[in-house]
Amino acid sequence: MGTTELGAFLRAHREALPPAAVGLPGGNRRRTPGLRRAELATLAGVSVDYLTRLEQGRDRSPSAQVLAALAETLGLSRDERIHLHRLAKSSGGGACDGAGAARARTVRPTVRALLDRLEPTPALVANRPGDLLTWTAGFARLAGPAGLLEADPPNLVRYTFTDPRAPDAHPDWDAVADERAAALRAAAALGDPHAALLAEELTITAGARFRDRFESSAALPTRTGVERWAHPEAGVLRLAYESLELPDPEEHRLVVYLPADETTAAALDRLTDHHPAAR
Question: How much is the pTM?
Answer without folding.
Answer: 0.78
